[in-house]
Amino acid sequence: MLPDLALFFTGQPLFALFLVIAAGYLLGAVTVKGISLGAGAVLFVGLAIGAAVPKLSLPPLLGNLGLLLFLYGVGIAYGAQFWRGLTSAEGAKSNLASAVAVGCALALTLLIAKWSCALGLGEALGAFAGAGTSTAALQAALTDFGNAPATGYSVAYPLGVAVPILILGLYNAIRKPAIAQASAAALQIAEIDVDEFSVLNTTLGEAGSRLPAGISIAAIRRGHRNLVADDAMRIEPGDVLLLTGIDPELLHDAATRFGRAHPGRMLRDRSDLDYERFFISNPALIGRSIASLALPSELNARILHLRRSDADLPITAQRMLEAGDRIGVLAPRASFPALRQLFGDSVRSTGEVSYIGIGVGVTLGLGFGAIHWPLPLLGQFSLGFAGLLLMALLLGWRRRTGPLYWAMPISANLVLRNFGLTLFLAVVGLSSGATFAATIAQDGLLYLLLGSAIVATLVVVTMTIALGVFRLPFDSVAGIVAGVTGNPAILGFANRIAPTDRPDMGYAMIFPSMTVLKILLVQLAGVWGN
Cα–Cα distance between 51 and 436 in angstroms, integer? Predict the structure, then answer.
């Protein structure tokens, strides 16, 4: 029975591939004490089937395609946060702490590889990639050392997920760091009776220019009619202003500058103005800033806020529109059909991508990665897929260049990069299963100790510098730890113990830069070792 099944798998590699994907995600969904492997379980299922069917083989190009999709999607998604983080004080401190930790972890890896008789450099670098859950670093190691790094990676990978969660959980339980709770990121409104003498007879434009960023005057009620705010209108006694924003404290402080809160009159009367959300799906608007979006005056409409994925974003002149955004507009109901035509308002846009943009972007990234750079005393090296990631980060920051639109809707981006990561892990597992089984039987304990030491170094050094030296808040540091160790499961745990938006921001700043750094360090170690 088993020989027949092995023969069937050997003759049907695609069947085996998708069986590994399905079984891996079933296993990855199992949670033990709040810890789950997620997509990483695909690797272990692939290793098991690869060990049982040693003659099963898949073309390496298939795995490279998966990794390409993953890295390109990550770069496009996090490009803006990455470059913004490099130019901010907190971002510079976060990247410095993370870079020192990655350097210490690699130094430990190289020392153990040099002193150990049972462990080669390829296997040690695989453990380094696994402890940092970096599939991109694994690919760099596989290029120089064949399948040897896959064993160290597969053994160290679960430690790379479990150890950071354990350390963060223990620190949170013992130290109980204070965490400022995030306010609800939803559109807030305030109706104000104007009775402050200092603002009477000023224009709405003058009054609005004194308001905090993110707070705006959306409408005015005069003579029992609701009117869209016009900067040239002057505030008169008896007017009621409708102020909007997503920060309730800022909104309250701004409202007190005009008078007393008197909610209800404007919102109950929808005969003149009403509120509606529209999907951004018109290709002519995608990649344009809100400042360049001139609504026709005859529609008598005003943009109130923008919702992207599950978050409400403040309206700024530089805010770029993306496919799948939902834009909130205040306008007469008679203008809704024209606004729907202007914005597109198609839910299908959330799953659409520009294949021209992907094709050109990937071509530029692979070309940049193929350039050979001189390395003093060591010869030459190329960035490889690190070049692809760097180019994707640049394009993700730019969002659009002329007619080419680089950004993707968040839902489409998630599908693209998660499928790419899954494909890569499945191919690596199936291709390395036979050698994994033989190696782990001989040196399994050594790999476990090495993986634990590497990931503990990553986490402890990062937290020591970020918390002890730079005094960054714990919720930011939790995201930084998730970024330097690289696994989304760690980010999910960080969000549970620190329920603010800082873990996501820290992860977005650190994950791309540390991915590039890990790739480069593995490549340099490979050049040095060879």
Answer: 7
